[in-house]
Structures are given as structure tokens and as C-alpha cells.
Amino acid sequence: MTRPTAPHILDVKLCMLGFGSVGRTFLAMLRDTEERLAREHGLRFLICGISTRHSGFLDATGMTAGDLLGIVHVGRDDLCGPAVPAEELIETCGADALIEATVLTPGGQPAAEHIEAAFRHGMDVVTVNKGPVAWHFDHLRRKAERNGRRWRFEGTVADGMPVFDLVENCLRSCRIHGFEGILNATTNFILEALGDGRSFDDAVAHAQREGFAEADPSHDIDGLDAACKVACLANVVLGAAITPDDVPRDSVRDVTPEQVTAARAAGRRLCVVAGGRLDDDGVHTGVRLTELPLDHPLTTIHGSALGLILHTDLMGDVFTAELHGEVQQTAYAVLADLLALYGRH
């Protein structure tokens, strides 16, 4: 990190792995808030490397987000040069922080290897890829400590909704003994749509058009996405040492409209509830189809919204929600994590 002419401004160089919608939205956010970040936080972020499967960008001196966006084709995986292998980029770009925004793969690799390499080369890390936290949390936490590095991952569970920051900064000295949430918008929307008389395929297609379901929605439909988020939460706030493979999960693939309407007729709502609890027998988790009473807070979560209840010893139950989960919120999570690492406190 270096300081430019103005002595109160700190330059922070960033390396980005992955340049999909989150990465592009993040750069636009940096461009649009450049003056605010300098004025309020004393920071200027410079991009010195980006790697995707098909193209790359490398400039060890760094470019502002505005300058970089002026020369790349935003909206396409088309950067300024040929693809650079992630390990090579991490080793040569001279960044202060790595932003890991590659696609989730079962097992959390190669994203976890990217993070470990960043620690070795003196970088802090921000990840929105939930795989490393879900499958490799303890290992990477120890690697960060051993290398004197910091690692943040707010965007892995609920887009930009404060979860880990809420626990860390707003629930000080509280012990979290459980959580329950609606953490996958796609399945939540599908169940609502089935109850409104729409077909399963139509509901999935609508969620894809709205942008909160992937082109291949199987990770959502079959519960893997929510199981990854449960593993992240359980590992970080409950002290578990689990992976998504340890989380029992239900699929919504075979849910019928009759099941949804029967629950409604009984004064309940069928939801996919992602939960975990800590008791004397250890940590218990699951992603389960659950009929909730209509006075339950999670029944207020509709469409692309997400919601989470934390069960604590000192503060009781704390409910937080994100009303519109979109790529903008996930991009903000990256910025919020960077401000937590480098901003004025």
C-alpha cells in the first residue's frame, strides 16, 4: 500500500479473480464513489490485476476503476489481454488484497487454493465465493493467522445483508447458539409461485429472468447453495467444523402445488428453512422443507428477499432481512469488507 501526493489518502491495490456481474458492478461502484471513499475513508482503490478463464488484465502500478472501465468491454468477459493463470497473477501483480469472485464449485476448489496463495504472497482476502468458507474455513483461518493476513467474507451468505459484521460488531460478547433463515431466493420464489398456480418450470424461468436464479439452477433447487450458506454460518458463528456435505438438505424439485396450497389452507406457509443449532451434543444443521406458522418472522420474506434469525444468549433473537437481493448488494459486500480492512476506524 502506498500513499499518493495527498498524505491522507491511502492507495490500496486490488487483484480480482473472476469478472462476472459482481466484479463489474463492484468496479462501477468504486468509480461512482471514488470521491466519497477518499473523503470519508481516506482510501483510493487501484486495480492491478484481473483474471478470468478467457482474458486478463495486469498493471502492477494499478488503475482506478473509472480508468479501467473506460478500456474494457463491460458486460462481456473481454479484458485487455490474454488470460493469466490465477497463481501467476497473484504472484506478480503486487496487490494488497485479493477479491475472490470465481464461480462456486463443490469442494470449494480452486478458490481455496487462490486464497491460500494470496496469504503466502502477503495479501489480505475478500471472498464472495462461499466454497472456501463452507469447505475449508478452519484450514484457511489458520493459514491467514500464520501469514499475518486478514480474511473477510460478508458476501457469502446473504448478498450484502450484514451477517458476520452484525455478529462481530453489533452483538459483542453474545454467544450465538442457533440460526434459521430463508437464504435462497430461488427456492422461496418457486414455492410461492406453485401456490399461485404457476408451474415449476415457469417459476424457474421467471427467477432466471429476474436474475436471482442461475442458468443452471440445480444448486438452488436441490439445496446445495443453501447448504453452503449453512456451513459458512455454522463454521464461523457456531464453531463447527463441517462442510456442505454434512448438511442434510431437501430439494424442491418434487414439491407439488397441492402441498403448498394445503399448507396455506392450514394457516401455514411452506418454506425452505436453512438452520443450525448448537447444544450439548454438538452442532446440528439442515436445509429443510418446513411449514411455518404465519406469525413466524420468516414468512414475511418474499420474492428475492432473504432473511435470517440469530438466536443469542444475551440479546435474544435478532432478525435481519434484505428486501431485494441483487448483484448490487453482493458488490457492496465486497466494498464493505474492504472498508473494514483498510478504512478509517
Structure keywords:
345 residues, alpha/beta, Rossmann fold, Dihydrodipicolinate Reductase, domain 2, seven-stranded mixed β-sheet, five-stranded antiparallel β-sheet, 13 helices, 12 strands
Q: Distance N terminus to C terminus? A: 17 Å
DSSP strand count: 12
CATH architecture of the largest domain: 3-Layer(aba) Sandwich
Total tally of structural domains: 2
Strand order of the largest sheet: 4-3-2-1-5-6-7
- Helix share bin: 25-40%
**Estimated structural class:** alpha/beta
Strand content: 15-25%
Average of per-residue pLDDT values? 93
Whole-angstrom Rg: 21 Å
The CATH fourth-level homologous superfamily of the largest domain = NAD(P)-binding Rossmann-like Domain
Question: Which fold does the CATH topology of the largest domain refer to?
Answer: Rossmann fold
Largest sheet: 7 strands, mixed
Shape category? globular
Task: Give an overview in words.
- The chain is an alpha/beta fold.
- The protein has two domains: 166 residues, NAD(P)-binding Rossmann-like Domain (Rossmann fold, 3-Layer(aba) Sandwich); 158 residues, Dihydrodipicolinate Reductase, domain 2, CATH 3.30.360.
- Helix content is 38%, strand content 24%.
- The strands form two sheets. A seven-stranded mixed sheet has the order 4-3-2-1-5-6-7, sandwiched between helices. A five-stranded antiparallel sheet has the order 10-9-8-11-12.
- Helix 6 runs parallel beside helix 11.
- The longest helix is centred in the middle third of the chain and has 16 residues.
- The model has no long low-confidence stretch (mean pLDDT 93).
